[in-house]
Model the fold of this input.
Amino acid sequence: MTVVYRDPLYSPAERAVDLLKRMTLEEKVGQMVQPNGMDEENPPEKLIEEKNIGTFLHIIGDKCKKYQETARKTRLGIPLLFGIDAIHGHGFQDGAVIFPTQIGLSCSWNPEMIEKVAAITAREVALTGVHWTFSPVLCLARDPRWGRVDETFGEDPYLTGVLAEAMVRGYQGEDLAASDSILACAKHFVAYGETTGGRDSAECDISERKLRTLFLPPFKRVIDAGCTTVMAGYHANDGVPCSADRRLLKDILKEEWGFEGVVVSDWNNIGHLHTTQKVAKDLKEAAGMGLNAGNDIIMFTLEFYNRALELVREGVIKEEVIDEACRRILELKFRLGLFDGKSFPDTSEAAEIIGCREHREAAYQTALESIVLLKNQDNLLPLDKDIKRIAVIGPNADDITAQYGDWAIAGRDENGVPTAESYGYDKKLATTVLQGIRGRAGKEPEILYEKGCDVIDKRKENIARAVKVAEQAEVIIAVVGDTTCLYGECLDRADLNLTGAQQELLEALKRTGKPLLVVLINGKPLTVPWVIENADAIIEAWNPGMEGGKAVASVLFGDFNPCGKLTISFPRHVGQLPVYYNQLPGWHTDRYQDMTVEPLFSFGYGLSYTSFEYSNLRVKNNRVKQDDIINVYVDIENTGSRAGIEIIQAYVNDLYSSVTTPVKELKGFSRLNLKPGEKRTVEIEIPVRSLSLVNRELEEMVEPGEFELMVGRSSRDEDLLTTKFSVIE
Ligand code: BGC
Done:
């Protein structure tokens, strides 16, 4: 007789239902638990044999194969599902390609490129026996004090949705069962970046109207595009922790949106319901809350296994709740092809493909497009060909930990000081900024180097030596910023100034009177008004990854014309926060008494080595109906002397509406490559439906009336052309 679940001719849904019928309660609950694969006290083999555990996180390579063997020998032989944080490349795997972090990638505004990044990552991840990445991050970074800004696509919900959708497509491919497809995970559901004071997983009080307006749309977009898993955030919103929030996980995500995939709780979310958030008096109550709310996979909290069994045996939780979660998990395993060979992938090519030349070339390209030119006084950049001697100074010039950023090396010792060793990553594979500059310069110009100071340590004793070196050069390139102990999970900041003795170093370099170019290697916006005033040129390189050093050098020497635009606004001072561009109008003034309200740099800002002129903004039809598309046209001319890419941004403001709406909201964008002197018309399509607001009855609707359309090079008013159109009944 055919065993339906073993037969690939049946659909994943049919196979899951068949398998479920054959399972004991214990086997079903085991599928729902995802222990930490690195926990030495609970070796995976034992957990598989004794508890029928169905998924682990943070296991790679040969171990995956070994544990799959163990699982194969269990009564039903259900393959394991392995998950990992491969969020800008397969950062846990030695030799894997490391791309810029998400915030860097986002500054490219290039969905095709981001899709490719994800596809390459998926290929490398799959070759190590892993099937699932906890990426992309869809949190909006509206408070740069928050530790995890580097993991986001910035502050805007529309751009986040577009780029996240591209990333999901890249990971999951056309067919989940393909050997190079892995599961994506939209996280952290929802509004995790919006906790008070920028404090990781602190208080959060967002009305459902605001959730639906700002934070849910990017998730909805990736779910509609087929994202298979969603991770519930750590924090509580309005007193309800995400993993206990039935309204969020069940009513909205699974029912209203029809999400058919799997909800995974974040690391020990179920434990936290009892231990830190204190909504459950013990772990059993916490397990019940997690089940009722709609979590399918419980990350880390091993005790969930026994507690869930007790709850079902005592009749507190119906077995159907377990069945429903288990069915979803099994269906995904079938869709992935785990029962049909993919759990034992052919890894013979792994060494050849992981970190191969082609993948590294992609890392280089992405680093180029992630770089944002923030200042370029008197066109000091690109560097003059006649320069004979350059001084490269600064703590991030030759520091791979700072350059890679979080989730790659992420090593920190017990004092929080960055170390490069914790994942055993081979540093020799990367090119630091110093190496990149040396490699590009060749014999001439001569490159001198001094570190000058540390990012953390405040000692100034090496500054004098750096100044001496700087004095021998014609130009100074100062590479400063932050490092992995200053951002990341649980690593929020109250102050965003340069740390260590970096400010003193820059001031001493400035006093030499030599042209001062600053390269920022950092995970988040820093408050650097002195730098903006005093540096002659500034490059924001973020955490540019493995090929970041080469990319920075290519920009400095003019081999590549920078085109990145900021996706997060930079404050001058933390007291100005929030500074995101899409604020609601209504503040009784437009300035602080002691400071301007203007950010240092606005969302969408970024320079080029050439210049672009915008003219003739128009719409095809300035009276549109709900189901129409607004066709926006604008002429762009490259008025400089170099070819360059321009990112054209379209913002809309609903002029009068039943609820207050932001002064402007990004609704579309386009990228255009223009030769010097070339002039083209760009078309951007904006569906009228995308102009919706969420009214006080929580209905999403486009209210008829007049709208302002703003198109230009950044979100700043002075960079935008404007026109109007009307939405009619
Ligand atoms: C983070 C998640 C991550 C998970 C697994 C948690 O601490 O919040 O983003 O995916 O750990 O590593």
